[in-house]
Structures are given as C-alpha cells and as structure tokens.
Amino acid sequence: MSTNRHRFARAFTLVESLAASVVLAVCVVAMATALSAASQQTLVAQRLTSATSLASQLLTEISAKPLLDPNDSSRTPGAEFAQGEYGRATFDNIDDYHGYTDATDDMLDRAGNAIPASSSGLANGWSFTRSVRVEYGARPVGHVIAPANDFALVTITVTAGAGVTYTTSRLFTAYTRAR
C-alpha cells in the first residue's frame, strides 16, 4: 500500500491538469489579443506614413509655385479655366490648387508620372484621397503690417481609409525674403 501512495503523490490529478490547461488557454488568448492589436497598430502606422509621404509630395509641388498669379496677380482661389488651367500641369500659382482632389487611381508626382505603388502604400491595395484647400487672409499671429490677403494657408488632407486621415498646413506669403 505504501507504494501506491507514493505513486499517487508524485502524479498530477485530473483537476490539477484541467486547471493548468485553463491557465494556459487564458495566457494564449491574452497573447493572441495583444499580437492582433499590435498588428492593427502597425497597419495604421504604415497607412499614416504613406499618407504623410503623399501629402509631402503634393506640398513640395505647391511650394515651388508663386503665391500670386503671374498673369494678373489675382488672389482668387481655384484654377482659372479662362486661362486654360485645367489640371496640375497647367497650374501656375498656389491658389490654383484650391479644390484640387485626386485619388489612388490618378495620383501623379509633379513631373506627371504615376506615383510608384511601392513608395506610397498603393502596393498594399490601400486607397488614398488627397484634397487641397487654399485660404487667403490667414495672417500670422501678431503680424498687423501686411494686408491679410498677402498670406495664404494651404491645407492638404490625405484620407487613407480605415479612419486614417492626415492633415498638414503651410502658410505662404507674397513677400520675398530680403537678404
């Protein structure tokens, strides 16, 4: 009989085995949940990075243009269709971009080439939409000397789907810096 007691004393009981299994299952579920959340955050970060890149490309293009229209120095946001400005290739100043929108299928860089999918997240099948808003009268805080219409605030919004939106703004002026 004493040998039976020692044999049972060393072995796990069924209850102990079930308790260990439950603890293991809870740990596995907790780890799977954490990994799933981390994966989702990684995807959001990748979309945000792609949206930032797309906004930066467009803002760089806009920054290369003068604030005032070179034909008539007008300050009217939006393309001047009467002057033949029907697309980005014909925009000749910053405010021509007001109301401009493009989407994944027709995104081009400033040279008119399709934006490579590998550099923008398009290879992942994500869809992006970029839109531009130009507002005159956005004078810097404390700046009261120059007329408000000598400043324009350009805001680019990139929507990357799945609730990811990136917005960036830059203030432009009609004045050049004296050296």
Describe the structure.
The relative contact order is 0.15. This protein has helices at residues 2-10, 14-63, 117-120; strands spanning 101-103, 129-136, 151-159, 165-173. With 179 residues, it is of the alpha+beta class. The protein starts with a helix and ends in a 6-residue tail after the last strand. The chain is elongated. A hairpin with a 5-residue loop joins strand 3 and strand 4 (165-173). It is built from three helices and four strands, in the order ααβαβββ. The chain has a four-stranded antiparallel sheet with strand order 1-2-3-4, covered by helices on one side. It has one domain (47-173).
Please outline the helices and strands.
Layout: H1 2-10, H2 14-63, E1 101-103, H3 117-120, E2 129-136, E3 151-159, E4 165-173
Antiparallel strand pairs: 1-2, 2-3, 3-4
Alpha-carbon distance between the two ends: 103 Å
Strand content: 15-25%
Stretches with pLDDT under 50, minimum 5 residues: none
- The percentage helix is 25-40%
SSE run: HHEHEEE
Helix count, DSSP H or I runs of 4 or more residues? 3
Order of strands in the sheet with most strands: 1-2-3-4
Largest sheet: 4 strands, antiparallel
Task: Tell me the number of structural domains.
Answer: 1
The average pLDDT score comes to: 78
The assigned structural class equals: alpha+beta
Count of strand segments: 4
Measured on Cα atoms, how large is the radius of gyration? 29 Å
Described by the principal axes of the CA atoms, the overall outline is elongated
